[in-house]
Specification:
2 copies of one chain form a homodimer. The first copy, chain A, is an alpha/beta fold. Chain A has 2 domains: 43-131, Ubiquitin-like (UB roll) (Roll); 142-293, Cytidine Deaminase, domain 2, CATH 3.40.140. Chain A has helices at 64-74, 107-111, 144-155, 187-201, 218-226, 240-249, and strands at 22-29, 34-40, 43-49, 52-59, 84-90, 95-100, 113-115, 123-125, 142-143, 168-174, 177-184, 209-212, 231-234, 252-258, 261-266, 271-272. Chain A has a 6-stranded mixed beta sheet, with helices on both faces. A 4-stranded mixed beta sheet of chain A has the order 4-3-6-5, covered by helices on one side. Chain A has a two-stranded antiparallel ribbon with strand order 1-2. In chain A, strand 1 (22-29) and strand 2 form a beta hairpin. Chains A and B meet through strand 1, strand 2, strand 4, strand 7 and helix 4 of A and strand 1, strand 2, strand 4, strand 7 and helix 4 of B. Strand 1 of chain A pairs antiparallel with strand 15 (261-266) of chain B.
């Protein structure tokens, strides 16, 4: 699959050829013949905040520092005004230690767990809904032409998506340009890596769109809102609570985006209907995210 | 989609028409026209073991008692020799209390969390790998004809799978017969509901096959092995660690099952090659799990 170099390329795009991310494994196929398959790696990464062990995440292992920063940020353990004094990744020990100027202790928060649903359920410490209090999302415009452009660009980007269902991706976008495309076996890792990149670079959220694979669950909506991003879009469907929360926080929620079609179940007031639908291709019959050579 | 009544029907099959599981939500489509959509419900369910709060699971809410029993069993908090003295579901409080004859306390275990990957990541308390020590899986045979029969039957069963990516399903099978088909927004919930059903009914695991949607991650392999089920199969792909663990515990791992094809990356010694491949249909072009009327 040739890489299409756009005038505005991705800042971070998947690197399907990165050797560390996959491994060839041998087995047999349906005829009993030997079959060699490229499968995605999955490694444990233990995240520490100032000496306190927080969680062990299973990840493909491409951006451990971003994953740690983003996880802590999205869990509300790393605050907006925190000064990060260090991020130390030890490849051998499979650990990342994030250090802040502020002394931290999250014993109580770590006790209350919510196992969430959705494709790539994460561990959400503390009260899920607490973090949403006081969240306001900006009244920015969302042009429908951007949605179609993003879909098209993202869908033709070579990814680690080697086999159906092996990987989830989430892409941080601005207007019609995909910027940071992260993948992982767990979707919440992909989102956290984006959040970590934003912490590291200081990149703002109010002018962004988050595009994701997989369904728009309550946890995805909460994460997106807490990251300050006003628009969340996916090819997939919704859950009722995801829609409810989106409406509560004023997030624009776009799902079932395929070909010319989409459904907006929240925040439609941001939409600017500028797309010329006749120029948007219908969905290909066997449409899938394009994969790298297997 | 008409229901096909087989001589050997499911013991439990999805009930896509159950009103409590979905809700109609209104929004707009790509033309700005009003669009009414049926979306899946997602509710919190807090699970207690003998008065101790363990976790809150986000679930579609169809089998709360099985979910609680199975979750606790799969986390190693409910032991094989435990006597369950009560399972109390309170629909209003959205809680389930599981009571055992044995006094329990899991403070320490609850502190160590692993956020796992995969589609429907669960919360895995304690050391993931610890539970696998001493697990032995039986040397049963697995006829390839069973795999094709199961695929065919499961794929034509009406399910809650209203929109692509909205729901995950896992099916407990015996030989060529699907028995218990559970779905949920989180795949690990679906697996736990099956485990809970097995606790409740006393149904054995050694003669079973677990068929699942989504990828064969380390967590799915561990859960299956700890449930004592020797075979795990999916349409989707593998992760390297999932394969490694399967080989360690001697589990038969079958992935990428589509049409006539599949790949076995572990436990191929159980396979009995009795299928007549010429009688197995090729995969339909736009094959998807058949959904109920939208």
């Amino acid at each position: 699959m040739p890489t299409v170099h756009e005038a505005n390329d991705f800042i971070i795009a998947p690197d399907p050829a990165a050797p560390r991310l996959t491994r060839v494994v041998e087995g047999v196929d349906q005829t009993g013949a030997t079959s060699a398959l490229s499968v995605v790696e999955e490694r444990p990464l233990t995240i520490y905040l100032n000496g306190q062990e927080i969680v062990t995440a299973m990840t493909i292992g491409d951006y451990p520092e971003y994953l740690a920063l983003g996880f802590l940020k999205n869990q509300g353990m790393l605050l907006a005004d925190d000064t990060v004094t260090g991020v130390e990744y030890d490849e051998e020990l499979e650990t990342v230690v994030v250090r802040t100027a502020r002394k931290t202790s999250y014993e109580e928060k770590l006790k209350k767990k919510t196992r969430t649903s959705g494709c790539a359920v994460g561990t959400v410490f503390g009260d899920m809904m607490e973090g949403l209090e006081g969240v306001t999302l900006p009244a920015v415009e969302l042009r429908t032409s951007w949605l179609y452009a993003l879909s098209a660009r993202i869908n033709r980007t070579p990814s680690l998506y080697l086999e159906a269902g092996a990987i989830h991706g989430t892409v941080l976008c601005r207007q019609d340009r995909p910027l940071v495309y992260m993948e992982d076996v767990g979707r919440h890792n992909a989102v956290d890596k984006i959040a970590g990149w934003m912490v590291q670079t200081g990149e703002g959220a109010t002018d962004k769109i988050l595009y994701t694979t997989g369904r728009l669950t309550s946890e995805m909506v909460i994460k997106t809102a807490m990251m300050g991003i006003p628009v969340l879009a996916s090819r997939s469907g919704f859950t009722a609570w995801g829609v409810e929360i989106a409406r509560q926080v004023g997030l624009t929620l776009i799902g079932r985006m395929r070909g010319q079609r989409f459904v907006c179940l929240s925040g439609a007031e941001r939409l600017v209907w500028d797309a010329d639908l006749s120029s948007v291709p219908e969905e290909e019959r066997k449409h899938r995210r394009k994969s790298a050579a297997e």
